[in-house]
Amino acid sequence: MKTLIEKANGQSIQKAAQILKSGGLVAFPTETVYGLGADALNAKAVKKIYLAKGRPSDNPLIVHIAQLNYLNEIAKDISAKAIELTKKFWPGPLTIILNKKDYIPYETSGALDTIAVRFPANSLAQKLINAANLPIAAPSANVSGKPSCTHFSHVINDLDGKIDMIIYEESEKEFSFGLESTIIDMTLEIPVMLRPGAVTLEMLKDCIGDVIVADNLLNDNEHPKAPGMKYKHYSPKAEVIIVSGNLENMSAKINELILQSENKKIGVLASDQTKNLYNNCLVLSAGNRNNLLDVAENLFSILREFDLNDIEIIYAESFPQNDIGFAIMNRLQKAADYKIIRV
Ligand code: TXA
Ligand code: MG
What we know:
This protein is of the alpha/beta class. About 35% of the residues lie in helices and about 20% in strands. Strands 1, 2, 3, 4, 5, 6, 7, 8, 9, 10, 11 and 12 form a twelve-stranded mixed sheet that branches. The longest helix is centred in the C-terminal third of the chain and has 17 residues, at about 290-310.
């Protein structure tokens, strides 16, 4: 299949919308990561997403809308608290799990009776969804298991030849978070945060009161409640090992590990504060560790850059867990398959 790769303008948005309406796949940017979109109401179209990504079919998709009134068309039993969340955080990086309307295909919901819904803030995403005039099912636009895509070149790398179109923006300014949306399950008595993101637990609690954090986010051995969270995820080709501790101990330990691995191509995922402390390896800084939003934005593209340089082992510094740091460390721990050295 030839994949059209087009910069966003009136014409290319119409073309992309037409592809979505006729059951094709289009990758598009959101304010978190690139999504791989299909008509959420068309089971055949949705199946193509699973095929293109190599995604297990029991891993449900997020349905994207760009007008609030679509919410009532795809979800039911919407509580007052869920409405509060939509008022406060939409459009934006929050996905809300609700009971699904019967006609939503089980292919979209991964055989569940619930549905994940998100109203993205990125204006190109909104224009595309509105032009298609459909709810758009869109997982992250990466090959299953790899880090999500935060630049259209990443999407080309993963999905060229497997999907109908990639639409991208010249300026990626609206691309502000770099980690997938926060997911909250609102079908339960007490809402549960299933995946951390830019909308933090504190922000959710401020808005609706009690919110529980899914057990698996606190304890690695728990079976995840968001079906997708149980799969290998965010993994570059290289083995990732996190070193956790204060800056001095962390950098000393990483230098010791570099010395012990002299036959391997080593990468260090560092920060602006520490990037000059390492030698004889590829050092990439995720940014200033006092600006975690920056680190979040850079994380996935850095993991991909190590791959482009054929790095075999990545020693990753750990980052503070406050604010978006909780989401950063969640993704990093999954990329490392929970291999953590504490010093
Ligand atoms: O920021 C994002 O959310 C991006 C952009 C494209 O919007 N999308 C994204 O989709 O990250 P994906 O498919 O990579 O992650 C969706 C997660 C999976 O872990 C999936 O298991 C979970 O959402 N999920 C979807 N529907 C669910 C449901 N009904 N109940 C529980 N978890 C659900
Ligand atoms: Mg994903």
